[in-house]
Amino acid sequence: MVLSGTPKRGYHHGDLRNALIQAAASLASESGPGSVTVRAAARVVGVTPTAAYRHFAGHEELMIATRDYAFDQLGAAMVARLSLVPDLADPRARALARLGAFGRGYLDFALEQPGLFRTSCAGGVEPLPKLGDLEPDSGFGMLVRGMDELVEVGLLAPERRPFAEFVAWSTVHGFALLVLNGQLHELDEDTRDAAFARVLEVVGEGLGSTGLSDELRAALVDIARRKP
User: Fold this and answer.
1) Mind listing the pLDDT tens digit for each residue in 48-61?
2) DSSP of 181-224, one letter per residue?
């Protein structure tokens, strides 16, 4: 994954704030959240720290903007994987395939942009917005809609719907962390993908509390193994 708008020396007049965010994102992508400072971003852009501090009062403000950028990139990775979902006739299979795409897109982002992925959950993260205030194209917004879709097609009982998105999110996030810097770090690609497909299968069956048919199971896990 290539960062959009990679910072270069100089910037368009009046767009220094965005140039600094792009610089901070580039620093985070290369070296993780610990590398993001106002002075470092100013150095990348080619301006004085004083000029940068006119837009960001301190490190925390720049980190918030960089986390927002990372979350946007995460959402883009999920949308990219979603575009690979085939046009399935069965609405249940389609809903499960979309759920699998959300999860695999999350893992794609963690693997391709580990620095930005770590930045997205670096210290001082703000609380999630209320459901009514969610951006529909945000990663979490898409996951919430995906869970609602499972209810609509009859795969998730309404009484089992509350907090289902947190079950899926925490499971996939935990797997991503284990692959990045945990006990699963040394897995080869085929084994990793097979393990992740099994993770999705367990999540899908657990949400519905019943086993999935072979057709529905395939719809859920095939997207996890499909090459972009």
Assistant:
1) 999 999 999 998 99
2) HSTTTT--HHHHHHHHHHHHHHHHHHHHTSPPPHHHHHHHHHHH
